[in-house]
Design goal:
Layout: E1 6-12, H1 16-24, E2 33-36, E3 44-49, E4 53-63, E5 67-77, E6 90-98, E7 101-109, H2 118-139
Antiparallel strand pairs: 1-7, 2-3, 3-4, 4-5, 5-6, 6-7
Length: about 150
């Protein structure tokens, strides 16, 4: 089944557990101000880039070494007409072995080309997942803001 939700996949040499732990170290790869717990089922956290982005996520699924899902409870994007485009979307991290490597498939369910923020948001996710998160997984070191 083809979907138009934004998605990207990376392969790394690290274990599924290492990938899972890096995803949940949100402050280590998602630049911006983060408040709240990011590493347990049911936790809620906010993400802010003053003047550009505010969102609140709830960890809706948390399966060690396999999957993490954030449900976007609220969002305000200052650079689009419909400031709440992200509201009620889900940010999904799926982890699986792929031969000797570990595959991380990232999907922002609900971030679709019809949204005004699709180009900017998908580009940002691409940089964060393929750059910051990948580098955090590989090196174990927090990554600087790409902006």
């Amino acid at each position: 089944m083809k979907t138009s939700d934004f998605s990207t996949t990376i392969l790394v040499d690290q274990t599924p557990t290492e990938v899972f732990n890096a995803i949940n170290n949100v402050r280590g790869w998602w630049s911006g101000e983060i408040e709240g717990d990011t590493d347990k089922l049911g936790a809620e956290f906010s993400y802010d880039v003053p003047g550009a982005h505010h969102s609140k996520q709830k960890i809706a699924e948390f399966i060690p070494g396999k999957k993490v899902v954030w449900r976007v409870l609220n969002a305000s994007l200052s650079f689009v007409k419909d400031k709440s485009e992200w509201k009620d979307t889900e940010i999904v991290f799926e982890i699986a072995k792929n031969g000797a490597k570990t595959e991380l498939r990232f999907t922002h369910q609900g971030l679709v080309p019809a949204y005004e923020c699709y180009n900017d948001c998908s580009n940002a996710w691409g940089i964060l997942i393929n750059g910051n998160l990948r580098n955090l997984i590989i090196t174990g070191k927090a990554q600087p803001s790409p902006w």
